[in-house]
Design goal:
This protein is an alpha+beta fold. It is built from five helices and seven strands, in the order E-H-H-H-E-E-E-H-E-H-E-E. Helix content is about 30%, strand content about 30%.
Length: about 180
Amino acid sequence: MSRKTSQSVPRLRVRSAEPADAEALAEIFQESWKSAYLGIIPHLHLEAMVRRRNVTWWRRALDGSRRTLILEVAGTPAGYANWGKARIRGPYQGEIYELYVAPIYQGLGFGEYLFEAARHAMDEAQLRGLIVWAITQNEGACAFYRRRGGRPITRASERFGSVKLEKTAFGWPDVVPARKGSS
């Protein structure tokens, strides 16, 4: 007789971030950036960027008009996404400016969960079409957006000290994909 075992699935929740989340967001940002960009962005510039995005920066950002979602795993902040109107002209009205999941939670599907939550928030805000920028050398991020159906639509570059890095914009014509069976 076989016995079924149930694995506990972590409770996921996405909500709007508040100024009280500043410390957790600063920590997620710092851990994520060091993990994602070590060896891509020159070390001194990476450290300076991480230092600038401290708790004070996040408190000010969350007190303004920035739309930031925070992902909680069993009540613990694990990632965030901030979004709004696209910064470039074109058919893409919405943009996810940043989407980061703390390294300890990566590879578990939480990034996809957060990405879909941001897409639905943009749909509710009636933003049509979605764009996300990723540093091209960040192969993990580019693969993540391709797996979600993003298509490279344009490129640009950004300078970090003496290093010029290419960025790729991924686009989705529809913020939320049509459900199967809907017309």
